[in-house]
Structures are given as C-alpha cells and as structure tokens.
Amino acid sequence: MISLFNQINCAFQNFGEILCKKLDLDILKSACFKGKAVFGPVKSRRLGYSLGINTMKCKMCTYDCVYCQNGSTSCRSTCRDSCIGEYELFCVVRKKLELLQAQNIPVDYITFVSSGEPTLDDNLASKIKLLREFGHKIAVITNGSLFWNDKVQEDLLLADYVSVKIDTLNEETWQIINRPHSRLRFQNILDGIERFSKSYKGILTTETMLVKNLNDSLQEVEAIGSFLKEIKRNKSYFAFPTRPPVESFVLPPDQQTLSQISDFITNNIPNSEMLFAPEEDVFYGAGELEDELLATLSAQPMREETVKKFITNKGGGIHTLQQMLNSNNISEVMFEGNRFYSSNNA
Description:
With about 350 residues, the chain is of the alpha/beta class. The protein has one domain (about 30-290): Aldolase class I (TIM Barrel). It has 11 helices and 13 strands. The strands form 3 sheets. Strands 1-2-5-6-7-8-9-10 form an 8-stranded mixed beta sheet. The protein has a 3-stranded antiparallel beta sheet with strand order 11-13-12. It has a two-stranded parallel sheet with strand order 3-4. β1 (about 40-45) and β2 (about 50-55) form a beta hairpin. The longest helix is centred in the first third of the chain and has 28 residues, at about 1-30. It is globular and about 65 Å long.
C-alpha cells in the first residue's frame, strides 16, 4: 500500500515538474517577454553592472517629460496596474542570470527602470521580494510622482537603492518639463519625497535633468538645492540631455551656464555632483542578438558605435543592423551631432 502511494506521489511530482518546465518554456517564448522585460546588464557609473527590469507592457507613465528618451507616453496614468506577473518575471530573470553566469558576465544590481514609471506596478513589492532570492541588490529608478501614496513608499522601502527625479521646485516649470497627469499635486509629491527620505534605510539619490531655458537658471538650481538640504539623501546628481529627447526643442544648457551651475552646486549643495561627461555606453547580452539589442534599446537609445560594437561581439554584421532598420524594429536618430539607435517598441 505504501509502495503504491509512493508511486502515485512520484508520478504527480514528475507531472508537476513537466508542467512547470512547459510553463517556463511558454513564458520564455512569449512575445510579451521576448526582448523586452529584462535587458543588459548595462554598465552604470552609479550601479556598476545593472540588469534592467522593464515591467511595463506599454509606455505607461505619470509624466510625459519633454526630455524623455523613450518617446511620448502612450498611457499617462496614476492608477497602479499589475503589469507583468511575478512568476513570469521570475522565470525570465532566472533564465537570463543563468545565461550571464555561463558567460561570466557580472551583475551588481537588478534594477527596475521601466520604459514608463516602475512604481505604477501594483505588484512591485512582491517582485522585489521574489527577485531578491537571486542574491543581487535591488534598485528602483523612479520619477517620484507617486510618493504621496503610502503603499508606494512601503514598496520602495524593500529596495537597496532608490533614485528619485527632482527637476524643479517651481510648479509652473514642473508643468512645462514633466507634463504630469492632471490628478497629480506638486506639493503632495514633494512632501512625499521628504517623508520617504526620513524613513528609508537604503541608498537614496536624486537626479535633476537640466534643460536649456527651462530649468537651468541659478534661481531654479538654488531652489532645488534648498529642498535637497531638507531631505535625507546620499547623493544628488545634476545632468543634461545626452540622448535624443522626445521633443526637438530640448537642448542641453550652454557650457557657460553649466559651468556656473557646477560652481554653485559645488559650493552650496553638499553631496551633489554635476555629470558633465555622458554615461559610458557599454551593455551586454547573453541571449539572441536581436532580442538583447531590442531590449536595451527599449530602455534607452544607444550611440551608433556602441550598437555596432555589440553586434560585432555577438557575431553579427552590418547587415544585422540594416535588417532591423528595414523591418522597422529600430530607428536612427541624430542628436547633438551623434547618431543613435532606438527601439520602435519602447
């Protein structure tokens, strides 16, 4: 009787394993996850080798920033959604990490850096907990617009590193640059960021994108600096557009203005830095060439020389890039004298 029970139990276990493997395979083959949900790792000056997580099924965001490098927001919302399921994401990340490990490609952080706003994912907390099982630190790159929501703050407390966007302290400028959803209230966002900074135990950084003639005056930077002194943070970064923005009128401040701002930051805002040099374009991929390239380009446009180097390292040729252009998977765009490639499916 015991022997028969063991046989039945073993049969159920084998069936369960087969079913799970079939489910995993279906997930990995799904068009929703192929070349989209997980990308990189991308080498970052702040996070080292960062494996990117994009849980958005479309460009869903609370903002429609004029300088966004991922194109116009297709769905502007403040309502949190389930986005990609936890188990599906876990399977894709596990497979990706196995491939990377086999090729000795390092990963320092698993980073939620969606083509939209990652805190719109209602299951963000459970995904952070699940992905932590892989033994890597977790980072979230957010625009901070939902920090008035206590549940969002609770979710982010689980991350090791949080980067929050603060482009201005002027509500009119905020409307012009970030083009927020109409339900958002500027002061509520600022209050939420301050509250979160006081309770968060991980690494908190801020990032300010300076746009010519919009928020690059010393008055704007001084106001931002005053706010930064009120919050508990590890570091604040000031940057300017170095990749093609969604709006053609967006330009970086001139060199004289950047120099003045840099001097002001150095002398008046502790633990802050002006990022003059563009971030180094280095990214890796362990899967199929086109899938890996599309996944990374969905998160950010890449310079021509970087894309060509990646294709060559993966065994492709110049025809690979041309085929992707001809099939309308990617686009070629010029910005500040440099040629970039971006995904048409961001």
